[in-house]
Amino acid sequence: MDLPFVGSSSHACRVAWDKGTARELLHRAGIPVPQSVGLSAQTFRDIGATALMEHVMHRLGERVVVKPTRCGSALGVTGVDGMGALPSALVHSYAYCEDALVERFHDGVDVSVVCVEDGDGLRALTPVAVYYEKGHEFDF
User: Fold this and answer.
1) What stretches of 72-138 show up as alpha helix (H) in DSSP?
2) DSSP secondary-structure letter at 70?
3) Domain 10-26+35-107: assigned CATH number
4) What is the pTM of this model?
5) How far apart are CA 80 and CA 40, in angstroms?
6) pLDDT digit string (tens) for 47-93?
7) Which end of the chain is more exposed for a tag (fewer CB within 10 A), N or C?
């Protein structure tokens, strides 16, 4: 089987796997990213839910998305509409990873674009819009 390797390099995969790192690199490259706060499970335990909710609400508002920093698909991701739901969303995220990223919610369409590199250079394939049903998690 003389098949060429298809896919991202191990370095690119490692960087993209960590949402905090990927977010920071995108920001440095001038690509707009939502405002966010990174929170470890230890910080959650040390500071407590009340102080944490006040800090997040002050920085990001009451509508946020909580996601594990290192996890695939939408595993551990929760939309929060009101700070009372933040602690349980963080606990859910921490079940997947010890670190969470809390981002300001932005309403809109989720678009995925696959890019491939061939003999002619880098090329974007057809964009795909992902629509979510309210109350349902994304699943392939």
Assistant:
1) 86-94
2) B
3) 3.30.1490.20
4) 0.81
5) 18
6) 988 888 888 989 999 999 999 999 877 889 999 998 889 999 999 99
7) N
